[in-house]
Write a structure and sequence with these properties.
Length: 258
Amino acid sequence: MEKRVLLIGIQKSFMINAIAVGLQKENYKVETVDPYAGAIDRLIDRPDIYILYLGDLASEATSLFTYLNEHIDSERFLLYLIGNNDELTYATSIIGKEKIQETYLRPLDVKLLVEHLNMVVDYSAVDESLRKKVLIIDDDGAMLRMMKTWLSVKYHVYMASSGKIALTFLEQTPVDLVLLDYEMPVMSGPEVLKAMRDHSKLKNVPVIFLTAKDDKESVMKVVSLKPAKYLLKSMPKDKLIGAIDEFFVMMDARNNKQ
């Protein structure tokens, strides 16, 4: 991925110019465009990274938000939003939160934005065959898409909306980690894990539970099945991803000792 971004906002805005200058100092090529769907559509060879500055936008920005929400799935750009609490709340009421890579409160810390963008660019250069493979199993479509958005920067991510689909997939496709929802209809997370542990091909695949429950009873129900971790769905993004990163660091260290 090139160090190119599409900066969306009122081009005569002082903040748009300031953000552009800050990114250019870090060797990013910045293309600016006014916040209108038609203006974006007219651009040829758009970057893979979109940064939307919400300050100065009027209420008619609704059509822009709708455009971005509809096009992000097919065009697969990474979307970053900058605004105050009210602006971000309104924008994310139209653009699915699960489709947004990061949000930043005004005033923007450009160094933090650059740090996040550099990580995306650096990881995109990693050979796809070397990326860890993660399967997310959850019946909540929004949760699936949000986790995929978060993790796809670093990992090759697969999704399954039920335990049955996941087990069929795992028999055909090896993965390095399964992120498993604890509570699902038809086949619960513990039932999926038990089926994996009873399957000769899947019994050693590491599993981390994603759960809204942290009570001792839920943990004890599956302790004998040896899940690698329990992660609360309510965890902040950075802590949740950090826990997954830490798991792989420990796993690699353990494998290197063998």
